[in-house]
What does this fold into?
Amino acid sequence: MSQNIEIEFKNLLTKQEFEMLLNHFKLKDTDFFTQENHYFDTPDFALKEQGSALRIRKKGEKYELTLKQPYQDALLETNESLEPLAAEKIFETGRIRNETIKGLIKKMNIDPDRIQYFGSLSTKRAEVEYENGLIVIDNSFYLNIEDFELEYEVSDRNDGQKKFSALLEQLEIPVRKTENKIKRFYNIKYMQHND
It folds into this structure.
C-alpha cells in the first residue's frame, strides 16, 4: 500500500487546443499510452457525496485500486496493487477485499458491501516534465463521449497555479471549470440514467 497527496490543475480542451498542445510539446502518437479507469460507488453515490472516489486503474498489465479522499486543499490517494484475477473479481462483484481500503470507507460511515461497479473510462495519455511538475495531456472515451484535457501535477499549489495559468495564457486557452474524470463520468451516467 502507498499513500500520496495529489495536487493538480485541470482544464478541458477543444480538439483544436489538444492538437495545438501536441505541437507545442512536440508529442507524437508513440508518446501516448492507454489506461483504463474503472469506477465504483454505492447506488446513492455516498463516496461522491463526500468528495471521494474509488477506482481500479489498468495500465498495461498492471491493476491498481485507488481511494481518493479530500485532504486539506488536495486529495489523499491510497493505492494498492492488485493481481489481474483479483481485479476481475471486483469488476464482477463490486466487492472490495482490501482491508485497508475497506477500513477507510467504513471510517466515512459508508458500508463497503454497498459498493458496486459503475463502468469504465479509457484514456490515451502523454506526460511531459514541465517547470518542476508534470504536464498530462489526455484524450478520454466514456459513455459515448470523447473529451480532451490538460492536467498539471505539482507539489506546491501556489507555484503550480501560477505556472498553469501562465501556460494557458501563453497558448491562449480559456480557463474552463473542469471536474475530474470520475465526476464527468458520473454526470453523464446520471443524465443517461434519467433520460
In short: The CA atoms of residues 109 and 142 lie 30 Å apart. The radius of gyration is 17 Å.
